[in-house]
Structures are given as structure tokens and as C-alpha cells.
Design brief:
- With 394 residues, the chain is mainly α.
- 75% of the residues lie in helices and 0% in strands.
- Helix 4 runs antiparallel to helix 14, helix 7 runs antiparallel to helix 8 and helix 12 packs antiparallel against helix 15.
Length: 394
């Protein structure tokens, strides 16, 4: 065997290959982002526009509330069965169905002039939305390497968070500029455009194991505990998005808008940061700090007469909410095998949407007895009652 001479100088100057890191952004993940971004844009464009439309055509006074209630009730209903649908029909078919249910009914809205028709459209769109959020989370968990899952979920959080920051106010602004019909068509197109990304997605979960059902997931403390903590923060989010504009009516006309924008922006940014931190140090370490920050931000609203306290409180609440969003979802995925991704995503989505509804409904009753400052304080204390179930480590 012939010896090969090595020049020490060249060896020292030779570049050292960096440690390989698993790739996050793959073509399949980009397709997930495209479909989810279109669906969430459609959702937020019409979230406030449809209730406004119901009022503008002179239908019954409770039509706005009925429309939103139908949307969220059907969303939760869809989340209960989506994991079973995916197990039977696969990701592509179920996601395509969700996008169709979100997009096509929006085209009917310009011709609707009754409470029943508006509520029916909202109910159908809610079914599509419930399917989309469950499938999106499960697909991201399946496509991102386990050691960088938190970061992948953080990127996903940014993708689905941007529509909440941009499309929600944009829908209301566009109505004033071009009217309702073009906004309805735009929302339909946004959702249906996501269909172009569906063919490149996985058909079924890449696992031969029997899928975990949602009811089984609810009986697993390892999944139930993070979902309870997350639900506590979503209850507060339901309070904030519903009642902050009402609680600040005597202040500057733009205070609620600025505060809600601060909340949404902080939540989107910290959701991404929490993913990177969780990959390196454990997602469980973030759940308790996220809960405490959310409760602290809500408690600041006791000083509702102070614009500075309101905006800073919403920045703190948004930061805690974003951290809790990412940490709870990453922790739940870490605690199941791939066969349980669909059920974990469904349970997390139920905590999200169920908490939003409970917060809005319960706070409405509470505030009639206590007034806004005391009701915000009571809600913050109730949030902190879940500290006992918050994991302290991964």
C-alpha cells in the first residue's frame, strides 16, 4: 500500500465541514404553507366582514352573533372527526375538501339576504376551517425532522399568523373601498388557490401503526396537561379580541386597533422564537413562562383607562400567547409517535377554538356583574389556576 503524504499547512487551511443540520423547508412543507396561508387569509378576511354584512342588509339584530357562533361551533365539530377522516382518506383528499368548504361558500354570500343563509354559509366554512387547522399542524409535524420540529412549527406559526395581522383589518378596509362582493370573491379565491399545492402533499401518514383516536388522546395526561394550559391562554384571547374594543370605547378611537395589532404581532414573532428555543432547551420549559406572561398582560388591562398600560399589556399578552402556542403544540407532538400526530393536532385545535368561545361567552356574563377592570383581574387569576398542570421540563 502506497503512503499518501499530507501537507500540514494545507491541512490546517482546509475548510472544516460544518455539522450537518436536518433541512426544514422542503418542497412538501412549502406546499403546506401555501395551502394554509390561503385558507387563513380567507378566514380572516371575512371574520369581521360577515357580521358587518349581516347588519348592513337589515336582517335580525342577532345575526352577527349567530354567524360567528355557527362558524366556531362547526369548526369544533370538524376538529372532532378530522383525525378519523385522515386515517381513512389521507391528507390530500381531506385537505382539498377543507379548502373547498372554505372557499366555495363565500361565493354564495353576495346573493344571501337572510339570517338562515348567512348562518348556513358560516357553518359550512367552519367545517372547512376545522379540517384545515388540524391537517396543517399534523403535516408540519410529519414533514419536519424531530430535532428541529419546534423551529418548523414556529415557521408555520409565522405563516398562519401573518393573515391574522394583515387580512383581518384589510377585509374591513376593502369593504369601505370596493364593497362586500369583491371581498367575498377574494376570500373564495384565497382558499381555492391553495388547491394547487395539494397534489404534492403526502397521501397518508408515513406510519404503519394504528392511528391514535381523539378520545384516546384526551385520556393521556401527557397530552391533556399542555392542552389545558394552552386553553387557559386562548380563553383570555377570546376575551381580548371580543371585549377590548368595547372596554376602550371611551378612549382614543384607534386604541383597540393598536393594542390588538401589538398582540397579534408579538404572538407571531414569539411563536417562531419559541420554536428555536424549544428545540435547543426543551419546549416544556417555556409553557409556564408563557402562561405567566399571558396572565400578566391580561392583568395590565385592570388599568383600562391608561392607553400605555393597554398597549404594553397587549404586547406582553401577545408574547406569552405566542410562546404558549408553540410550546404546547411542540410538547404534544414530542409525546406521541407519528401515529398520534393527527389526534394531538386535533386536541390542540380544540383547546384553541373551544377556549376562544368559552372566553367570549363567560366574560360577557362576568362583566355584567363586575365591570371590565375586575373581570380582567378575575380572568387572569383563573388562568393562573392552571399553573399546577404546566410541565416544567420537556
Amino acid at each position: 500500500m502506497t503512503a499518501v503524504a499530507i501537507d500540514p499547512a494545507k491541512a490546517l487551511l482546509a475548510p472544516v465541514a460544518p455539522t450537518a443540520r436536518a433541512r426544514i423547508v422542503t418542497p412538501a412543507l412549502v406546499r403546506v404553507f401555501v395551502s394554509e396561508f390561503g385558507a387563513l387569509t380567507s378566514f380572516y378576511l371575512l371574520l369581521s366582514v360577515v357580521p358587518l354584512y349581516a347588519a348592513s342588509i337589515g336582517v335580525a339584530g342577532n345575526a352577527a352573533g349567530l354567524a360567528t357562533a355557527a362558524l366556531m361551533l362547526s369548526t369544533v365539530s370538524a376538529e372532532l372527526v378530522t383525525s378519523r377522516l385522515v386515517a381513512r382518506f389521507g391528507y390530500r383528499f381531506v385537505l382539498a375538501g377543507g379548502l373547498l368548504l372554505m372557499g366555495a361558500p363565500a361565493l354564495v354570500l353576495p346573493a344571501t339576504a337572510s339570517v338562515q343563509a348567512i348562518v348556513a354559509v358560516c357553518a359550512v366554512r367552519g367545517l372547512g376551517f376545522g379540517i384545515i387547522v388540524v391537517v396543517g399542524g399534523s403535516l408540519v409535524a410529519s414533514l419536519v425532522p424531530r430535532e428541529r420540529r419546534g423551529e418548523g412549527l414556529g415557521l408555520y406559526g409565522v405563516v398562519v399568523g401573518i393573515p391574522s395581522v394583515v387580512a383581518l383589518p384589510l377585509g374591513l378596509w376593502l369593504v369601505g373601498q370596493v364593497g362586500y362582493a369583491p371581498v367575498f370573491v377574494g376570500a373564495a379565491v384565497a382558499a381555492l388557490t391553495g388547491l394547487v399545492a395539494v397534489p404534492g402533499l403526502p397521501g397518508r401518514a408515513p406510519t404503519p401503526q394504528q392511528p391514535v383516536g381523539l378520545l384516546a388522546a384526551m385520556r393521556m395526561p401527557a397530552l391533556l396537561r399542555p392542552s389545558i394550559v394552552f386553553c387557559a391562554t386562548t380563553v383570555a384571547a377570546g376575551v381580548v379580541v371580543t371585549f377590548l374594543p368595547l372596554a376602550t370605547r371611551g378612549a382614543s378611537a384607534n386604541l383597540a386597533t393598536v393594542a390588538l395589532l401589538a398582540h397579534a404581532t408579538a404572538a407571531t414573532a414569539t411563536r417562531w422564537w419559541a420554536g428555536r428555543f424549544g428545540d435547543n432547551h426543551g419546549a416544556g420549559r417555556l409553557l409556564l413562562p408563557g402562561l405567566l406572561a399571558s396572565a400578566g398582560g391580561l392583568l395590565a388591562l385592570v388599568l383600562i383607562a391608561s392607553p400605555v398600560a393597554v398597549v404594553l399589556g397587549m404586547l406582553l399578552f401577545g408574547a406569552g400567547f405566542g410562546v404558549t402556542q408553540n410550546a404546547s403544540l411542540a410538547l404534544m407532538f414530542d409525546r406521541v409517535s407519528p401515529s398520534g400526530y393527527d389526534a394531538a393536532s386535533a386536541l390542540w385545535s380544540l383547546a384553541y377554538d373551544g377556549g376562544l368561545g368559552l372566553g367570549a361567552a363567560g366574560f360577557g356574563v362576568l362583566v355584567m356583574w363586575t365591570g371590565y377592570p375586575a373581570a380582567f383581574a378575575v380572568t387572569a387569576v383563573l388562568m393562573l389556576s392552571t399553573v399546577t398542570v404546566a410541565p416544567r421540563q420537556k
